[in-house]
């Protein structure tokens, strides 16, 4: 019989060959069992160590331990290599292939612009207000100091409903119409709240225009109203400048031009100028109307015009969106065309 | 309103450029919508005088001159030799362009360096100016030529001009005249306004002997005046008159008619000239002009040759026999001025605006005259404008004016007086103007300032210093204090009002929170992959068939395409699908949150028979439409071509409603699907409250919209979602002990619903049951007909300890027993 010492190296060699040569993880496990498992051949050799003489034992022990460490290292290395190989995809991955897209829906550009405007106003303490789209002629016109025979009230320009009568909160017997501006909500807010008032009113409005690149019978406006003691034209200018710079960039210039609206006095139109307008070949582009709320309007809603002053301004949301994004046809906003909607 | 720079300059001096004037006008509230330059000949060429002439330092053949161009001195490099110091020569300024020679591009002069020396312009030869074919020397002008004068003027040729197109706001009818606009310029520049005096030479005959006026309706015509000119020669207008009208877009007709138009543009007062001899003579052997209302059924042929049927409220100018003019709108053919006219009867009147507007609108006849009268003419200038008109008729058509005027003005309008408190001006504008500044601005506008009340010593301390102004008759818009404040703001200049940063109260409104919830819903839906659409509010009745009765109809729709207010958002989304399909976009997932309109009374058992009786209502809805592939195009996988189906729509809504804070939502087969659906489910809250409906689009409707793929639709009552949502969130401690899962596959009759299974599970009241999830539904060969296999995963968990196998088994057994008993379930092993 070969001495124990003589058996160590041949067994070590055979075990190393078996472990390193395992073709897959299952073969590796088998090889492990064969050699260094509880019933393995190398383990059996270790068990014989106790039978050796006192002189032989330290030498054999040292050799056996070295060999065991060597085999365990070989096992771990082979396992790592086989695990990596097993995880590798069967076919090569083409990293340039398109992935499975998870499309996000997009908010409508008019929603986005409205949100931006509302955000600006809220930063300076405005609340959002709302009112009916079906209005009576009092809230849309009379209360706003629009004379009875003003062309704006004409059936040529304003949509009237077949039904006269009473919409909720409107005066019975008055003709019903689709509001032509969100300014009608200004009246409703002033009627129902005591000053000071600070609201902004986004919403749909209607004019009897045939649809073309710059007109749609339905469009959207936003009005801002501020009533308090000692509100001045200076306040109006300051707020308008703040909002438009917030909205259009701090490099815009804002200009106020005297104008006429029945419900404000003095009245102004607001022009802005920026790199954008210059690109469009214009120094100034009209963007909004505004003014100090007419004392007659205050009287109509029961405010004392001596005690309170205030300003209002309004502008078209489509117009802002068209300028901001370079949209050239207002009808695109209302067609639901995905090629359009996905651009914003 | 169109007006030219040169015409304005007849009444007020203005030194600046046409662009500067446009800015000035715009900032006064007269928005310049367009400015067109009328190229005069020799623009930018002026008469200049040579002051010095020295040799060019770097070139033998050139000389270096200093010239006076009328404004200052310039240095010019010149190649000509035929002139001497003191000569007057044409100078073209930098930026101007020499007349183009045939076959050559026009040459624009720039400031340039010639042999190292700057030349600010060029002295011109006759050839360069296109005045002669030959000649290289400078054109030497006569010694009396005026230095600085435009060269065209020097030659007596037409100079350049600028035509402004101004937007006149409806409150300022006084600005529909050249003088009115000149008055604004004068007010802001401080230059004097030069209004023509319009004086007439005395005459041997009096107008009273030639014509009478009978005013039958002083309410509709508060003032009517007449003048007569005899012995005119009707013919073509002189050039100045013809050109003045043509520049602003009017056609020249003849000298007399042109003068009436010219004076209308000049003063804003519409005038009308009748052929005196075609007006019938009345009592006393002279024509009587009758201002009366038309008779019912009366017909009248206007100047444009059309016969008009008149209504009783229309105002007519007539003689004793017939109508001769439609008051304030258009004259009649029967008394038109023509080349045989010798004597002219001139009307200058003031008509009530409302009546003129109605007449013009009813007849569909808008004229320059009706435009001015309906906005409010100046009752105070009838006489002066008439005099001015006669003055010009005499000038261009000869003749002799009758002395005096027939002026029927029974109740002269008293000038309005308005009191203005200086402090209010500053309070409103955010300025600190002194009283004198305020009064100066008002005075500049022709407002007479009087009755200045300084604070009297004995007056109460709050009595404010104020001033009273008299408003001239042309300013019909100035009615109360605030109107005067606006005038001060305009003349002081809005640009000079300092902007103050936002300040003051914090806003509040009940809707504020609703707005945020709308935004939140939109963001959730976008996050779920839906694009936001915004449809038309106005839709066609035909598209709303499915919505049933209670449509809110327009009384004056533009077309049948848009004659009702949308009763539902679905027609709009279907229109969007159709639009996309037409552009080959077949994968569409859209939502809209918007308002719908109805007139039906509230739904419920009390639904009344009369369908259009209720008041119109507005409600918010949320609608969703899905069609086409569920996923974007991908290049492998078995599900890649899968189309949106019911379960996509339902799953989307479940996730949305859950995230939006609506719990306890159920979906039940709708007893009676709306006509738009092939089949549909009702969405309910708490088993009762109707939240909306969803399902697959009916193939019949799909055909109307030309939609070829299945379309899934949903529409929910958004107001209810807002009212019922509970977005409150509370933390639940995370489970510490492991859950135990038990799967159960069973065979049930085809008609057994998932909801029935859940109900049976709930009935079993199994302890520790945490969740039930369906993970398979299977129908197939191995199953008997009319049966399906369903598989559920049950999770059991205890909050304070690990459940034992025995506990889980006991609980699970209860459920299995319940299912077997209630649903005839056969458990599959």
Explain what this protein looks like in three dimensions:
The complex is a heterodimer of chains A (344) and B (829). Chain A is α+β, with helices and mostly antiparallel strands. Chain A folds into 2 domains: 4-87; 109-341, Bira Bifunctional Protein, Domain 2 (BirA Bifunctional Protein, domain 2). Chain A has helices at residues 4-21, 25-35, 41-47, 56-87, 109-123, 137-140, 183-192, 233-248, 275-279, 295-300, 317-325, 338-341, and strands at residues 127-128, 134-136, 176-178, 197-206, 218-228, 253-261, 264-273, 285-293, 309-316. Chain B folds into 6 domains: 2-39 and 161-189, Phenylalanyl-tRNA Synthetase, Chain B, domain 1 (2-Layer Sandwich), CATH 3.30.56.10; 45-155, Beta Barrel (OB fold (Dihydrolipoamide Acetyltransferase, E2P)); 207-408, 3-Layer(bba) Sandwich (Phenylalanyl-tRNA Synthetase, Chain B, domain 3), CATH 3.50.40; 436-496, no CATH class; 514-724, BirA Bifunctional Protein, domain 2 (2-Layer Sandwich), CATH 3.30.930.10; 740-828, Ferrodoxin-fold anticodon-binding domain (Alpha-Beta Plaits). In chain B, 25% of the residues lie in helices and 26% in strands. At the A-B interface, α5, β1, β4, β5 and α8 of A face α7, α10, α12, α13 and β26 of B.
User: pLDDT below 50 for ≥5 consecutive residues: which ranges of chain B?
Assistant: 602-612
C-alpha termini separation of chain B:
92 Å
For the largest beta-sheet of chain B, the strand count, sense and barrel status come to: 7 strands, mixed
CATH topology tier name of the largest domain in chain A: BirA Bifunctional Protein, domain 2
Q: What is the level 1 CATH name of the largest domain in chain A? A: Alpha Beta
Structural class of chain A: alpha+beta
Largest sheet of chain A: 7 strands, mixed
Order of strands, main sheet of chain B, comes to 26-30-31-35-34-33-32
Oligomer: heterodimer
What's the number of helices of chain B?
Answer: 19
